[in-house]
Amino acid sequence: MIDGKASVGNCHIRRVTAPWLGAFGVAMVLACSLDSGNQSGSLQDWIPSGVQDPSGPASDEASTNDSALASIGDPAFGSVDDVPISLDASLGFSRDAKFSSLQYVLEDISMERHPSDGGGRAWIESVEDEAGAPLLPHAGGLARIRTTYEAGPLGISIGGALYFQVSSYWGWDPPQNLVSDAPGYTEVECAVDGVELDIEWWGTEVLAIGIGGRGLEAGEKIRLVYGAGRALARVDSFAERRARLWFAVDGDGDGARKLIANSPTVDIAAGDPARLIVMLPSSARPGDEIQVSLSVLDREGSTGVAFDGSVSLRVDRDGLEVPQHVEFRLDHLGRRRLPIRVNKPGVYRISAILYSPEYRLATLTTSNPLVVREGIPRLRWTDLHGHSQISDGTGTPADYFLYARDVAGLDVVSLTDHDHWGENFLDANPEMWEEIRTNVDRFNDPGHFVTLLGYEWTSWIHGHRHVIYFENKGQVLSMADPRYQTPAQLWSALKGQPALTFAHHSAGGPVSTNWTYRPDPAIEPVTEIVSVHGSSEAEDSPGRIYDPLPGNFVRDVLDAGMQFGFIGSSDSHDGHPGQAQLASSGGSGLAAIFSEELSRSAIREALLARRVYATNGARIWLEVELDGHPMGSSLAFEKNIVPEDSRDTTAGQRPEAQRLHIYVVAESPLERIDIVRSGHISSIRLQGELEWTEERTIPPLGPGEYYYVRVIQQDGGVAWSSPFYGAL
Ligand SMILES: [Zn+2]
Ligand SMILES: [Zn+2]
Description:
Blueprint (H helix, E strand, L loop, with lengths): L1 E7 L2 E6 L9 H10 L27 H8 L28 H12 L10 E8 L13 E9 L10 E5 L20 E4 L6 E6 L4 E7 L8 E6 L6 E2 L5 E5 L1 E5 L7 E2 L5 E4 L6 E5 L3 E2 L4 E9 L11 E7 L4 E2 L3 E4 L6 E8 L3 E3 L1 E7 L4 E6 L3 E3 L6 E5 L13 H11 L4 E4 L14 H14 L6 E10 L3 E7 L17 H8 L4 E5 L22 E6 L2 E2 L18 H6 L5 E4 L21 E5 L5 H9 L3 E4 L5 E6 L2 E2 L3 E2 L13 E2 L7 E8 L4 E8 L2 E6 L5 E8 L7 E8 L4 E4 L2 E3 L2
Parallel strand pairs: 16-25, 26-27, 27-28, 31-33, 38-39, 38-46
Antiparallel strand pairs: 1-2, 3-4, 4-9, 4-10, 5-8, 5-12, 6-9, 7-8, 11-14, 12-13, 15-17, 17-21, 18-20, 18-23, 19-21, 22-25, 23-24, 26-34, 28-29, 29-30, 31-32, 34-35, 35-45, 36-37, 36-40, 40-43, 41-42, 41-44, 44-45, 44-46
Helix pairs in contact: 4-5
């Protein structure tokens, strides 16, 4: 972990790459650049010439951090020999395996910590505005935060250091000590006689405070003012309760540091009301009562805004009982859910108008479409992959579930924080896993809203997978544990449990999937083809993923004979599951699951049967049938196969032709529908229709063939059906 010594003044501080930064931050940095639209202004403008570039490496030795950032798209990601444990290479690794990232994780874990490391406590004295008045900071706003650190019983010896760090992801100004007029300026002061501080800003979110002169003894204090200058410091661009200001201590000066037990937190409130969204379920039957979610959000899509006013609603046709006006009081925090009655078949969209001179707001928005007919299959909008402040996201687990239910109007959600990634690690902190589990339990409400316990197995050498347990217990089987190092080891440890795994960003992005490990459809029936990282479907996919590896797309995997259903997930890090597109320039992911019952077991069954489709966040209604069979079906002919699951499989004579039925109701004007048959695409060009029905006959699917549909809106919204498969 020690990558060198940096000389500052006449004291030496050993530079240690923060395990929560950098080299393995490739994925996060990218995810974050997608998510955080409100970065603070460039410090560059503030730094006088002659001072090192704050956005670049702080020195020559600095850092694997920077070299990792520079290495995006560069295949040199360290070598297998650098990893301090022996790796099972029998089935190879991801073609873009990030060995250096695994190396950092493992070296950090094995690094010995002196008892004085991580000692002491810290607290916030005050959060202020520029004039020094108490302040509740708002998302993307400015603040001055006064903190105190007090040394623990073992103190910090000469050569040791205290580290102050803000989150690297969400637009916080780096705590710098170079220019007092610049944002993030941090004053550090120790009034104790004989102690000299050597303060060094790393050009990142870390400020290192070396202890010289004499050691800092038990009870002695260091005061830090973050945002001490007149430019103050910009805080999280998203609303977040308990945003942490991290303190770490290297007590003995050996370069190994440890977070103190409870770094202090500050609450970040939502910004001003700026946007309005209306969410409806996508399917209902006449006579149903459904929920409409109306949310007034801030510019970056955070909930919790202070809004007091009225929203007017209109439906485009008769048959939905919708109130004309909905009142918001301040204590609604910008969120309303209302039951409405559905009376007649048809396709409905609700328009909402918010006109408020007081908030300088005038906006008209339209809901996703609701399709009503007798016996329509029930569609459950689902997001099975996202992160909170427990790993490298923003926001608490409780707020994540609340947003999923009340703002995004999801039916099913899972929070999947990383096993070993971020500032503090899920695999080493059972209380963090317990916090997730408790909230999963609290929000689960079968029939209305289903929550699932999960985490992300963050392998940098075989690809990431999230693991979802369909009951309220399960363990974090960490990729950093040699027992769960390969996908095969993970699957075997999960055997016998109601758990499923999901490969994601499999064609590239932060790291691709090593498909040499062939998943068993009983544990990995579907694959996440799209998220904020982009689409892993195919080279020709709209919104293709960054850093793709030709030959590693999901379509290549189908060509190799594997069979999956398709889902999307947000992989949101911004605390906005189901709505990550609000702050990510449009890219996200959702799973559409057909399930009559809304319960954990029914959702698992639907995933196993591949009665699912993927979207990149757009709530497009998509029905595809082949000879009356739902998407995801495997169609067996000619052989006398007795299907195990008669809903999904047909056995019998091979027909002359098969009847394809496609019905689409889009959110916005349609551009085209692509029909993909074993790699060959035929397109139906459209002229901006909102609805489309296609009936055609096709030559029957032969053994090993696959067939799926992708629907593309003019605004870039896409839905992908799960494929039909010609059974072998
Ligand atoms: Zn991932
Ligand atoms: Zn993730």
